[in-house]
Amino acid sequence: MREKEVVIRIENLVKRFQGRPVLDGVNLEIHRGETFVVIGSTGCGKSTLLRNMIGSLKPDSGKVFLLGNDITDLHEDELDDVRMKIGMSFQSSALFDSMTVAENVSLGLIEHTRLQKSVIDIIVKMKLELVGLRGFEDLMPSELSGGMRKRVGLARAIAMDPEIVFYDEPTSGLDPITQGVIDKLIIDLSKKLSITSVVVTHDMKSAMAIADKIAMLYDGKILEVGTGCQIQKSKSEIVQQFITGCHDGPIHFFKQKEDYLDHLV
């Protein structure tokens, strides 16, 4: 069986803040069609890694290849061309409060295509139907629940038929039932639309539910990569402490403000 195409390759990635390494030699490969989940404690550098993957941060050293492009060397206009092939689902949904649901979802289509409004309206209805919100086009974000706002943000992320969708803490702040709805959406959209999904989360239940592969980020490095089953059977004390949520183990809590600031991303 031929191995799937690598759509994201990270080589020896280093990113420092105020001279301190947040990412310290990260290496990763993500294949087309995978749902790839990056786990790790709060402040471990997950969001920094994601921002390097989409090019909103530049590494101090190392390379990031996105859809065959070395984005560490691209000019901003070249990077924008690559970004047209990806979608982003933000932790806070990042909806514009002054715009309706439909206007939020159609934003990229209006900005980056020459499609007629009637065509855009059809696409918006289709994307909202995929996330279970058809008929909500005229509502304002303030009229939606937290889970519904997450789904609108997801509809916007897939509006332009991206090859890759990045998710930053997609189930954060949601009740268990709504978390399950979002998890199922990520799985269904990945299959129906043949999307590669990259998810950053500290929610182990969600990670185990959706992941084809899981990578554990710790102390600036990828500690282990494997399927959910492989991660559960890991012999690493750090991995076991994180996935079980045990308070006692090698992962330390910040007892001094200086320690916290040193590790804050």
Description:
There is one protein chain. The chain is an alpha/beta fold and 265 residues long. The chain has a domain at 1-85 and 165-170 and 193-265: 3-Layer(aba) Sandwich (Rossmann fold). Helix content is 37%, strand content 24%. The chain has ten helices and ten strands. The strands form two sheets. The chain has a six-stranded mixed β-sheet with strand order 6-7-8-3-9-10, sandwiched between helices. Strand 1 (6-17) and strand 2 (20-31) form a beta hairpin. Helix 3 packs across helix 4 and helix 3 packs parallel to helix 5. The radius of gyration is 19 Å and the shape is globular. It starts with 5 loop residues before the first strand and ends with a helix. Residues 254-258 have low confidence and may be disordered.
Q: In CATH's first tier, which class of the domain at 1-85 and 165-170 and 193-265 applies?
A: Alpha Beta
Share of helical residues: 25-40%
Q: Architecture of the domain at 1-85 and 165-170 and 193-265, according to CATH?
A: 3-Layer(aba) Sandwich
Rg calc: 19 Å
CATH superfamily of the domain at 1-85 and 165-170 and 193-265: P-loop containing nucleotide triphosphate hydrolases
Q: Counting H and I runs of at least 4 residues, what is the number of helices?
A: 10
- Structural class, from secondary structure content? alpha/beta
CATH fold descriptor of the domain at 1-85 and 165-170 and 193-265: Rossmann fold
Secondary-structure element series: EEEHEEHEHHHEHEHEEHHH
Largest β-sheet summary: 6 strands, mixed
Q: Identify the overall geometry.
A: globular
Percentage of residues in strands: 15-25%
Uncertain ranges: 254-258
Terminus-to-terminus distance: 40 Å
In spatial order, strands of the major sheet run 6-7-8-3-9-10
Count of strand segments? 10
Mean pLDDT: 89
